[in-house]
Amino acid sequence: MSLKPYQRKASKGTVQIKNSNGRLQLAFTFAKKRHYLSLGFDDTPQHRKLAEMRAREIELDMLSGNFDQSLQKYKPQPVLNISAPDRPIEKVPTLIEIWTSYLEDKASSLKITTKGYHKSFTKLFDRIGDIPLLNSLEVKKALEKITTVPQTKRALTQLNAACEWAKRHKLIDSMPYEGMAKDLPQYVYQVDPKPNAFTEQKREEVIKAFRNHKGNWNGRGYTGHSYAHYASFVEGLFLIGCRPSEAIGLQWKNVTEDCEKIHFTGSIAMAEGIPTRVDGSKNNKKRDFPCSKRLQQLLQSVRPDKPDPEALVFPSPKGKVINYNNFSNNAWNRVVDPIQPRTTPYSCRDTFITTQVLKGVPIAIIARWCDTSVAEIEKRYLDFLALQEIKPID
């Protein structure tokens, strides 16, 4: 048996793909023992992709301490393709193999925050075990046992996308997860789509509460943290209507010297617990936002004489990036819940859009300001406002 030119000796902890008499074989060493695993595939470009997926699975198991020394986990499992009865029995990749290959193929086009989102599903799929890809009902039941219904719904949506990719690349012939997510209960935002906005009066109460916050009063004095530092950040959220991650990532180089205009170029989000700058908006766009007089005055009040262009406009009390989750779960909940419960900092965006609609600003302009669509504003905001204002006729 001779090796092809690209079949070099594998480094430690890696799996080598070989051609053995026209058939694909995996070769690797574990615990000083050499293993050879025949996959039963002819050496074709498509089967090479399957072999690479199986090789990566074995490498991951060796690294994580989950290697199956019996090799049963890695041996090909025959699956009958019932949609094409005249074709021979083919080997079908596992769920993890398809998911891993799908992510690797998409990696170059995804934002780091999206990669972090996908990683949560990788952990979830690892937990349900080695279930065959085509056994979609068993996968669904396994997910429902270890996570919530909304997360199961999201996982099935992701698997369907991975299968669409695999079918395009002729790795599978069917779509086992198609329509499954739609059969599960709707998300909260679908059941109750109305905006969670403040009135202008409540908005001012929230801003004032942050500005005057001194800690927790115990009858003799204030204890704990004062959240007054965040007053400018909260007021900015209300007056700009951007996503919180965009306000958190706003730098002085994005604000004109006279503070009359903001140029949004990206945001800061948490990726695996690390603040990460992301270029472009959620919709991969950059946009200009004209500041109102009040917003202009706010920015001028917090602007240093000669600001570092890279410095944050709304930093944390220690001058670092505001951690959205910490701010939302602590500062926001403690200060805002007594005024209007069951809101989040994202409600500031709802408030801005609702206020601008009520004041007669053209919807197309608001959509550009807020990086959303006219259809979304009409569906989510106008319908809600109409129901609030229109009354039955006697």
From TrEMBL:
Signal peptide: none annotated. Pfam families: Arm-DNA-bind_2, Phage_integrase. CDD domains: DNA_BRE_C. It comes from Stenomitos frigidus AS-A4. Keywords: DNA integration, DNA recombination. Residues 193-394 form the Tyr recombinase domain. Belongs to the 'phage' integrase family. The keyword NADP does not apply. It comes from the Bacteria. The lineage of its organism: Bacteria, Bacillati, Cyanobacteriota, Cyanophyceae, Leptolyngbyales. This is DUF3596 domain-containing protein.
